[in-house]
Each structure stands twice: as structure tokens, then as C-alpha cells.
Amino acid sequence: MTATMTHARLATRPAHLAFRAMSTDVTVTVVGAQLDALDWARRRVCELEQRWSRFLPESDIGRLNRAEGNALEVHPDTVTAVRAACAAWLVTEGCFDPTVHDSLLRLGYDDTIEVVRERGGGSPAVSLPAPGCAGIEFDEARSVVRLPAGVRLDLGGIGKGLAADLTVAGLLEGGADGALVSVGGDLRVAGTPPGGDAWVIAIEDPRTECPLTSVSLLSGGVATSTTLRRRWRSGQRPHHHLLAPTTGASTANDVVGATVVADTAAWADALSKVPFVDPDRHDCFQHVSCLVMRADGTSSTIGEFPA
Hints:
By secondary structure, the protein is an alpha+beta fold. The protein has a single domain, classed as ApbE-like domains (T-fold, Roll). The chain has helices spanning 37-52, 60-65, 76-91, 101-106, 113-119, 156-173, 265-272, 274-277, and strands at 15-21, 24-31, 71-73, 137-139, 144-146, 178-183, 186-191, 199-205, 210-217, 220-226, 231-234, 237-240, 243-244, 249-250, 255-262, 289-294, 299-302.
């Protein structure tokens, strides 16, 4: 059942909420919202997790991953997510790839990061290339998705970004003047900010966990990806969750962080994966900004990164 928002007295000041969902921290800020807007936002993010998590066998993604080539009827939110993931795969020419599910499992990432990190050890992992999105079919009118046999999805970051996008859209449709939703750092803002003329978003340096810069947005998405957080060991070999799809192994260049500012959080997240896979790839960053951080402490920009 889709989360619904009931009408109530308007809040007079910005309201804030923090909670855990999608194995990460979620924060919500609403301006001029209905009194139940924060509860609605929590329910909305949690229901999207129930549909998209690869760790939940009865989620839409869990069922699709077991369908072995059969078409399944899923929730329209899931069709939206699959369409967004396939579009990002096309635009980035495979640098972003939602079919790394089995590659992650081969490296030992078969449960939440807390469980995998605690477990450690095991046999040495052998990498497995991702099959790619060619052959994935979806029918929005019938709300049906078909994955080719042997193709399984991990929506991962783009799911978090899309959850932020959809939740902000729902808050505005429900009467909020402005909203900010951050799901694990994949952040979307729109509408009236709580103070001043724009939403001011601090960009944290994953190398130091200190503020590096900030961006001012009227509306848009910001996402940061890093190799320094979701890390674990398998057979005493270190891994992280950002994989090179052509090999199925964790990326091994000097890029340790990338922040992208785009129209939506979903696009920002997908594009933030590109510098890790192909640091010299710039053509897909038209109309967006990217800040790339390297292990030696230096940073560079793709496009005109807003200050």
C-alpha cells in the first residue's frame, strides 16, 4: 500500500526528522508542511526499501532476481526504478551498472554491510563481470518487468537517490512549501528553503570527514560516492562496493570520492560512479557538475562545480 498524507494544520517552522532505512541514515527537512508530513516521509522511504532491497526475498527486486527470465508484475515504483537504472546504464555506457548483484555476492557482499564486515574471513574471492542491462524489458502500462535469465539487479545507490527524489516530490504534492530528503548522502531539495534564497548543501570530504566545500541550490540533487566507507574483507583481501562492471572487481585507481550535482538525486548518484570506473570519462557530465577526490589529497572538477 502506498503511503498517504492526511491534511492537518500547517507547521509554522521547518520540521526535521532523522531515522534509519535502506541500511543507512535518512534525514528529512520540510518547510510549511502538514503536521504528519514527517511521518509520511518515513513511511514512504520504508515502503520503497520493502520494494527495492535485494536483501528482502519478497521485495519486487528479490522476486525479479529469482524469476529466471520470467516476466513479473511489480509495483509501478519498481518499474520507475528499473527504467531509471537502465537509462543510467545507457548514458554512462556501462560505467554505472545495476546488474553487479552477482559480482557483489562473489566478493562476499551477500548481506547488509554490517553483517559482511563483521563476518570477514572466508575463502579468497574470485571476481565475476556484470552482464549489463541489455535484454531487460519493462512495460509501464502493465507494470511488468522481465530480467533475462542470469541477470539480477542491485539498485544500490540509485535506489537511494530515487527514494529521495520520490519522497521530495510527494512532500511537495502533499502541500509542503519546500523539502530536503537525504538517503545515505543521496540528497534532493526542491521548493522554498528554510532560510535565505537557496538550499546550502555542505560537501563532506570522505578522506577527512570534514567539510570540503558547499553548493547552493534552488532545486536539484547531490550525491557522493566513496570507496572509503563500505569496505570488507574476503579471504583477507580488502574489497569495496564500487565495482568495475567489466571485471566485477572493486575499482583500483586513485579515485576515492566523487560528488555530483545534477537535476535529481538518482542521476547524481549514477553519474558519481563514473570517475571510479573511468577517471578520464567526461562526456556524460554535460549539464552536471562533478568534484573528484583522490587518495593523495588532491581534487579536480568536471564541469563548473558550483561553490
